UniProtKB/TrEMBL annotation:
CDD domains: HNHc (cd00085)
Species, as recorded: Tectimicrobiota bacterium
Matches recorded under InterPro entries: HNH_5, HNH_nuc, NA-targeting_endonuclease
Name of this protein: HNH endonuclease
Pfam families noted in UniProt: HNH_5
GO MF term set: endonuclease activity
Keywords: Endonuclease, Hydrolase, Nuclease
Signal peptide extent: none
Lineage top rank: taxon: Bacteria
Every HNH nuclease domain range: 73-124
Keyword Nuclease on entry: yes
Length: 176
């Protein structure tokens, strides 16, 4: 239960900066590094105390988060960049993989500009062909991200989590 629950971490200025599991959030609160701002109503009990499971915590000290610089190239960051969505069919419910637009067998590199998020079915359909050879077109061309929107820090959020987090994320939502 504690490792599966996600908690939004706010900087001292109420800016969303991270998503962590509930175990880590409780540890930060008990060590005096953060305070619980919202809880989801569940109780965590031990022999000596009971504690409401936090949904949102705020750090007591300001943490400088650089907004520029290199974002590490990793599978997790590719999924974040592509919003956990298959870039060929738009599916958000499928098991995700990473696809090389120009296959490695044809000299394609593992780089931000050549890799995108893809469901297993689309990855198998494309194989080691170029997208146009397979009759597929990426929804967006892959590119190197400059920063991540706070809501992209974790996997897709369910409605209950969104309800607790929405007022903290709303000021940071991108304009549509």
């Amino acid at each position: 239960m504690l490792d599966g629950a996600r908690v939004l971490v706010l900087n001292q200025t109420y800016e969303p900066i991270h998503i962590c599991n509930a175990r880590r959030a409780i540890r930060m609160v008990l060590l005096g590094k953060a305070v619980s701002i919202e809880d989801d109503g569940l109780l965590v009990r031990s022999e000596s105390f009971q504690f409401r499971l936090p949904a949102v915590i705020r750090l007591l000290r300001f943490v400088h988060i650089p907004r520029t610089g290199d974002i590490p190239f990793s599978k997790k960051n590719i999924w974040r960049r592509d919003n956990y969505t298959c870039q060929y069919c738009g599916s958000m419910d499928a098991v995700l993989t990473v696809d090389h637009v120009i296959p490695r067998s044809r000299g394609g590199l593992s780089s931000w500009e050549n890799v995108l998020c893809c469901c297993r079915a689309c990855n198998a359909r494309k194989g080691d062909r170029l997208p146009h050879e397979a009759g597929m077109t990426p929804l967006r061309p892959p590119r190197k991200p400059r920063f991540f929107h706070p809501e992209a820090m974790g996997p897709r959020l369910n409605d209950a989590v969104r309800q607790h987090w929405s007022k903290y994320l709303r000021p940071f939502e991108p304009s549509r």
